[in-house]
Amino acid sequence: MVDSVNKNWRSRAASIESAALAGLAHAGLLAASLALIQLDRPPLSAGDDVLTAFLSSPDARARLVIAMNLTPLSVIAFLWFIAVIRRRVGDREDKFFSTVFLGSGLVLAALLLVGSAVHGATAVLATQTDRVPDPDAYRLMRSVGQGILGIAAPRLGAVFILATSNLGRRTGALPRWLVAFGALAGIVMVVDVTFSEPMPFVFPVWVALVSLALLFRKPTGVANEGSQPSDDI
Known about the structure:
Blueprint: H1 2-13, H2 16-38, H3 48-56, H4 58-89, H5 95-129, H6 135-171, H7 176-191, H8 202-216
C-alpha cells in the first residue's frame, strides 16, 4: 500500500504537468524579482544625493530584500523544471545536448542567486545596521549585479534555450513556432552586448511559453519510467 502511494506520488511529481507548473512558477517569481530590482532605481550616473535618498528609502530597501527572497524560490522551481524534463527524456537523451542542457541550467541558477544577492547587498546592510551605504559602494555593487544579471545570466540562459529548443525539435514536444522563437531568442541573447534592462526578462518569458506548451500540448503515447515516446518530452 505504501509502495503504491509512493510510486503514485513519484509519478505525479515527475509528470509533464508538474514540469509545466514548476516552469510557470519560476517564470513568475524570476520576473517579479527582476522587476523589483529595476523598479524606480536611479541611474548610476545620478549624483550622490540622489543615490543616498534612494538607499535611505524604506520602500526601496524592502523591494530589494523581497527580490532577494523571491530569487531562491524561482531557482528551486527551475531545478524542478530541469529534473522533470531530464527524467522524462530518459534513455533517449543525446549525451552532448543533455550535458549542455544540465550544465547551462545549473550555472544559470547560480548566476541568478549571486546576481540577486549582489543587487540586494546594500539594502541588507542598510536594513541591518540602519546606516546608509556609501553611494560609490552602491555603484560598485550594482555594476557587478548588472554584469551578472544583464550580461552573464542572459548568455547562459541563451545556451539553455538553444539546447532545450533542440530537444523539443528532436522529440516533437514543442511546436515549431516555439522552437523557432527559442532559436531566435537564444541568438539575440548571445550577441547582445548592452545592459538593456528588458533583456533579462526574455528568459522567464520563454520558460513561461514552454511551460504552457507542455501543459496544453497533448502527448500521443504513454510514458514509462525513465523513457518517453518520441513525440513527448
